[in-house]
Amino acid sequence: MRKRKVAGNRKSEGRRVTRAIKTALARIEERDPKLGVALRESIETGQFFSYSLQEGPRRGKIKK
Questions:
Q1: What is the pLDDT confidence band of residue 64, given thresholds at 50, 70 and 90?
Q2: What per-residue string of b and e applies to 26-44 under the rule 16 or more CB within 10 Å gives b?
Q3: What is the pLDDT of residues 33-52, one digit of tens each?
Q4: In angstroms, what CA-CA distances link 7 with 3, 12, 16, 38?
C-alpha cells in the first residue's frame, strides 16, 4: 500500500467541499432564485472558503 501525501488529501477534500457547496447553492437557487443568487455572490470557494454579506441584512419569510 502506497502512502499518500497529506497535501494531496487536503486538495481532494477541498474539491469535495467546493463541489458540495456549489451543488447546495444550485439546489437553493432552483427553489428560491433570489436567495440562491445572493448566496452565490456572497460565498467564495478556492484555497480558502469565505462568506461575506454583499449588502445590508435582508429580511423576509422563509417558505416551507
A1: low
A2: eebbeeeeebbebbeeeee
A3: 999 998 998 998 888 888 88
A4: 12, 9, 14, 32
- Cα–Cα distance, 37 to 60 (Å, whole number): 15
Distance separating the N- and C-terminal Cα atoms of the chain: 49
* Strand ranges inside 1-64, DSSP E: 43-44, 50-51
Q: Do residues 24 and 52 lie in contact, with contact meaning Cβ atoms separated by under 8 Å? A: no
Tell me the pTM: 0.64
Joined together, the cell numbers standing for residue 59 give 429580511
Instruction: List pLDDT tens digits, range 9-33.
Output: 778 888 999 999 999 999 999 999 9
The strand pairing partners of 34, in sequence order, are none
